[in-house]
Amino acid sequence: MATKRRRQATTEPATKAKRAKFTLENATLPEITTHGVVLVTGAGDVGQLGLGPDILEKKRPALVNLEHEIVDICAGGMHTVCLTSKGKVLTFGCNDEGALGRITEGKEDAEFESGEVELPGKVIQISAGDSHSAALLDNGQVFAWGTFRDSHGNMGMTLKGNERLPFEIVRDLHIIKIASGADHIVFLTNHGEVYTCGCAEQGQLGRTTERGSSRNARSGIGKGQLAKLLQPGPISLKPSLKLHFDNIWSATYGTFCKVANSDDIYVFGLNNYFQLGLKSMAPQYMPKLSKEFSKYKWTLISSGQHHTIALDENGKAYAIGRKEYGRLGLGKDCQDATELQLITSLDDKKIVHVACGSTTSFAVTEEGELYGWGMGTNGQLGTGDEDDCELPTLIKSKQLQDRKVYRASSGGQHTVILAVTNSNNNKGDNV
């Protein structure tokens, strides 16, 4: 029997168009075209002020004499990281666990003075936690050094333990922004994905259950669970949400992620004082929409241990979280803020930058004035004494008279300030 002839198709069969992969050209990184001088205040007993071995404390901002043009600064728990205009990284402070990324053993006073970290390319962003540091290169690579810690002690940064020199912590991904909490790092890829690694005990990784958040979780066999935490992995999201992100910020024990082309903010981590803007005070282990933070358009979110200061697109600063030591800047009689509160004493100023330490807060005005509030015990506010400040207080010092501040970063007990001056890092200045 003759084979039945098939009817020829008169048109090409319809093909289902592939969904284009979401791509971010770039992320909102700290501006690094303006260079200035570095000023420090607070405790310097392990070298975190960079003023040499003879100066262990400052109650007002003091100049760090550096031979480089500095474009960004990060205060870690007990160390400081600086980025130069040529994309080099300088560090000083405690190096017990490798947070400086350079060898200091056998070198007298090496931790008290700045030294360069050897990296294989130009750095465009830096971050620092309690005992670690990280650097983002212009080609999308990320290098990190130091260690993470949890309630059991030192986690290491890899299964080998502490990494005292920079190593490539993320591979096969193009990263466009990084952020460091006390003991975790957050990575934003060029496809709008968020990866995390480090300690997960408070939910700050956004990819473990509460039961699986400890390195000793039952699901872990040997070092398997620890490896899962230390290896950067994507946060857990329902595929049906089809979410992509275009910005990230970290808290001491939490993370904020901004949805691309939206004002929505997803959060995870410690929320015991409502610092993530969630109604439940329980730790949040998986990404959850923060309706409170999604009310505004944010340019910057900075979060300490138990409080958050956020800056909106109109230059207004808001506070939420724990009131102790005056860290909210809402006045003596304020209560813990369960919702975002406008810092009214700054309402007549345009704020261009905010920063949180563990128990401190800072704001920089368009005019280059620096305001600080919160715990002053170690002089980290730079007011000249050790009193707590319950309202934003203008920081005055001889070193700030002819300078405009444009960035600040606060660590555990010290604060680092970046200011513009006509005599950039002039060694003739008095410290």
Please tell me about this protein's structure.
- GO terms for molecular function: guanyl-nucleotide exchange factor activity.
- InterPro entries: Ran_GTPase-activating, RCC1-like_dom, RCC1/BLIP-II, Reg_chr_condens.
- Keywords: Guanine-nucleotide releasing factor, Repeat.
- One of its GO terms (cellular component) is cytoplasm.
- This is RCC1-like domain-containing protein.
- The protein is an all-beta fold.
- It has one domain: Regulator of chromosome condensation 1/beta-lactamase-inhibitor protein II (Methylamine Dehydrogenase, Chain H, 7 Propeller), CATH 2.130.10.
- It contains one helix and 30 strands.
- The strands form eight sheets. The chain has a four-stranded antiparallel beta sheet with strand order 2-1-30-29, with no helix packed on it.
- The longest helix has 7 residues, at about 225-230.
Keywords:
431 residues, mainly beta, four-stranded antiparallel sheet, 1 helix, disordered C terminus, RCC1-like_dom, guanine-nucleotide releasing factor, RCC1/BLIP-II, guanyl-nucleotide exchange factor activity, repeat
Strand-helix topology:
Layout: E1 37-43, E2 57-64, E3 70-75, E4 79-84, E5 89-93, E6 115-117, E7 123-128, E8 132-137, E9 142-146, E10 148-150, E11 153-156, E12 163-168, E13 175-180, E14 184-189, E15 194-198, H1 224-230, E16 233-234, E17 245-251, E18 254-259, E19 265-269, E20 284-289, E21 298-303, E22 307-312, E23 317-321, E24 337-342, E25 351-356, E26 360-365, E27 370-374, E28 389-394, E29 404-410, E30 414-420
Antiparallel strand pairs: 1-2, 1-30, 3-4, 4-5, 5-6, 7-8, 8-9, 9-12, 10-11, 13-14, 14-15, 15-16, 17-18, 18-19, 19-20, 21-22, 22-23, 23-24, 25-26, 26-27, 27-28, 29-30
